[in-house]
């Protein structure tokens, strides 16, 4: 009886352990039986090398589901149809877009869903059946599709470099580099001279600044003296102006007092004065002639002129 009881206990423990392991496996696999699953199709035109069933599906980098099926599209052999399964409440919008992206350097590939604006409607609500998420080439596929063109351009560049780096051009490049080195040395000398010139200019500027300060002080003193002299001159001019005004007033009074005598003088006396001046002018002319005759021959004026002929 005791042996049978031990077997029962061991069996119960094993069953409990198996149930715990089963629950742990379910939790580890993140299997959620209480959530509905929504399938989506993705049509890919390029290669799907590296993608496997059960591979991850990420929406903006977040794991949301897995790849459940990979096959050629029965309606278009130029496409590969991927079937992914995500929880029904995953908000995949009508403007979402899918692509295949590499997983590091391991060679694996996963499905990445990008896009989807806040105001766009849900994709599953706009279609009947299994919705199709639009796709675009992956970054790797885009690079690989451009690889032949890139290689061709590289070959052209290589050929041109070969032509460019011939012997003649190499000599020219060497000469150019030597000239550049010499020009660099000359530039260094020029910079040194420029620095010396700048220092000298600063020194001259300081000297000019000091001289300008002295000149300004002298100018201020001169302006002050001129101002004082101007004040004195202005006072003298004012005084002189007053004297002139007084003299003008005196002359005006004198003329006013002697208006009648002046009128009589201008009427009669002025004519007599004019006649007197004429006679004085005639007298002056006669005296001038007598003076000239005396200078030429004084005896002729005193004894009279000799009209006869002088005896031999």
Structure description:
By secondary structure, the protein is α/β, with parallel strands linked by helices. It folds into 4 domains: 31 residues; 110 residues, no CATH class; 74 residues; 44 residues. The longest helix has 91 residues. The radius of gyration is 65 Å and the shape is elongated. The C terminus is likely disordered.
Can you describe this structure in just a few lines?
Helix content is 60%, strand content 16%. The protein has five helices and seven strands, in the order αβββββββαααα. The protein has helices at residues 2-28, 139-164, 167-257, 259-296, 298-303, and strands at 37-44, 56-59, 62-72, 80-87, 96-103, 108-115, 132-133.
Write the layout of secondary structure elements.
Blueprint: H1 2-28, E1 37-44, E2 56-59, E3 62-72, E4 80-87, E5 96-103, E6 108-115, E7 132-133, H2 139-164, H3 167-257, H4 259-296, H5 298-303
Parallel strand pairs: 1-7, 2-6
Antiparallel strand pairs: 1-4, 2-3, 3-4, 5-6
Describe the structure using short key phrases.
4 domains, elongated, alpha/beta, 16% strand, 60% helix, 5 helices, seven-stranded mixed beta sheet, 312 residues
The structural domain count equals 4
Alpha-beta content class: alpha/beta
SSE topology string: HEEEEEEEHHHH
Strand order of the largest sheet: 5-6-2-3-4-1-7
Beta fraction of the residues? 15-25%
Average residue pLDDT: 77
Number of helices: 5
